[in-house]
Specification:
Elements: E1 5-10, H1 18-34, E2 36-41, H2 43-50, H3 54-71, E3 78-82, H4 88-97, H5 102-107, H6 109-117, H7 126-129, H8 131-140, E4 146-149, H9 154-171, H10 177-187, H11 190-206, H12 209-220, H13 227-238, E5 249-252, H14 280-288, H15 309-317, H16 320-331, H17 337-364, H18 366-394
Parallel strand pairs: 1-2, 2-3, 4-5
Bound molecules: tryptophan and iron/sulfur cluster (SF4).
Binding site for L-tryptophan: 138
Subunit structure: Homodimer.
Function: Catalyzes the attachment of tryptophan to tRNA(Trp).
Length: 400
Amino acid sequence: MLVDRVLSGMRPTGSLHLGHYHGVLKNWVEMQQKYECFFFVADWHALTTHYDTPQIIEQSVWDMVIDWLAVGVDPARATLFIQSRVPEHAELHLLLSMITPRGWLERVPTYKDQQEKLSEKDLGTYGFLGYPLLQSADILIYRATQVPVGEDQVPHIEFTREIARRFNHIYGRESGFEEKAKAAVKKLGGKKAKLYDELRTRYQEQGDDEALQSAKLLLDEQQSLSMSDRERLFGYLEGGGKMILFEPHAMLTAASKMPGLDGQKMSKSYNNTISLREDEVSVTKKIRTMPTDPARVRRTDVGNPEKCPVWQLHQVYSNEDTKHWVQQGCTSAGIGCIECKQPVIDAVLAEQKPMRERAQLYLDDPTLVRNIISDGCEKARKLAAETMRDVREAMGLIYS
Ligand code: TRP
Ligand code: SF4
């Protein structure tokens, strides 16, 4: 298996709801079983749109981390940290800005889209224009290979790949690259050097992607290579100069179809959410008062589940038997709507129970959360510092 490093961030702009759970967090919990994962609170990204309401960000940061832990993100498997506690992200953002054509940023689709959507705010700022570049810095600084994102964010990953390519193109050249690369191949030792050469030839002459992957894997396993030699050998594989920044891949998370209380997609802006750790009384009340098929005015009127938001929640939470019971009961007026809602209420409460319990642990002892984040930030900073050393060197910023 190729060594994948997964990284994703979330903006702390309010409390998380079940839509976040079904759309994003469930996926994080799965990925932490398979990959080295880094998940972070993108507080600087939140400031690009919420610069005038920093209190919201401040309130949301710890709540969001508790929400992550509540759903089962496991600090023993994933590294959790806060963006602004790793100031190296800002340094990389600045350095990358030197080579970022303004037109590239202006053409990222979210730039205009968000300005239109959030028209009550002035998003004509320098910071907001730089949003995708800050995201690139987040990703490139950890040399992440996989970035789980929703569809709207795919252009940001594409943009990041272009920035990495441009950076390597401008700064990856060094005099005598070919000789230095060949010397580095020798350092791999007889057998491995031969294998590397074979795989490189196969890729370069026949475009054999498998050979490329195997060669990368081989390099990943070489503990004793210096960072510079590693970059040379990665770059030499694909023909260019040194590869200092790595191009990440978007890992597309299927769009969340989690319905809200009114049948539209669950979203804070529709005011139709159930928050992750909402108390039982409130959850019960919200579902009990959900609208149903408008044609079903009296208990004796038959209904049509297709026209009912409750049915959509059954799709998420109910098994075949229950769904059958709903279909039958609704279309024959055999069950009432309150009755129909009960299995949904039970299922949501059951889903939330372990979340509430885990969260309680952290609410009772906030230092646990602080320590998890401190450890995560420390680990993140170490990796970020390694990349920054290479970046500064490549850009001629090491004056000794
Ligand atoms: N822009 C992302 C969003 O709105 C959040 C984010 C910031 C992010 N930095 C990132 C996601 C790096 C993935 C990787 O959802
Ligand atoms: Fe909706 Fe169920 Fe009432 Fe039918 S019985 S209208 S599906 S809540």
